[in-house]
Amino acid sequence: MPLYQAIVLAVIQGLTEFLPVSSTAHLTLFPWFLGWKDPGLTFDVALHAGTLVAVLLYFRRTWVDMLLAAAGPGKGSAAEIEEKRRLFWYLVIGTIPGGIAGYLLERRAEDEFRTPLVIAVAMIVVALLMWAGERLSRREESLGQVTFLDSIVVGVAQALAVIPGVSRSGITMTAGLFRGMTRETAARFSFLLSTPLIAGAALKKGLDIIRHEGLPPEMRLPFAVGIVVSGLVGYVVIAWLIRYLERRTFTVFIVYRLVLGVVVLLWGLRS
User: Fold this and answer.
1) Which of 227, 195, 166 has its CA nearest to residue 44?
2) Confidence (pLDDT) at 271
């Protein structure tokens, strides 16, 4: 794999894993448009590992506080500890639907679903849902006010992200808006909820590589570059998006999804 392709794809992964525009769609479409070869399972592991590092580093204090609260004493007042403990278990519950969907549909998602038509339709449909969420949401709920039902609804929405073009962050943030979360809260909850599934995907695919062939010598440098670049870009994107959503709307992402969806649909029909 040429190093410049590894860098480009790692930048795309870092940008699109956390922006509500679908990393799977972009990593499928970009090589398709340019005629590049499929980078394969090995490089996919590097990209997942990089974005996992990004989200863990950004939310490291939140995860430590939640784990301490769930395990026992925790830090802070009794009310703060209870809030962190509750959030931890809500994240555990919310992860279950996505985990089941990934387990049952992984092969179909990687083969049958990765077509321009599916990607285009998913991009457009989620854009319209995001637009509806923007218009209808109360946008009052903070992270500490997230409920059990919120975790179920957002978790079920996350399960739909196995379809290329849906976007894990896009569909979960949209579900959060429909549940009355602020835009910032929807983003934070989305990123926290994605962490176990990104970790699970990276671990599973990593074990597949070890069982089958190991890391080929020619992939060692692209693999390392993929982790570092996608991790750095992903971290910056998380920090930027949360600040952006404190003041702005999802409009730019809605428009982008609609435009890209139409372009891909027309390109696919022409092909």
Assistant:
1) 227
2) 59
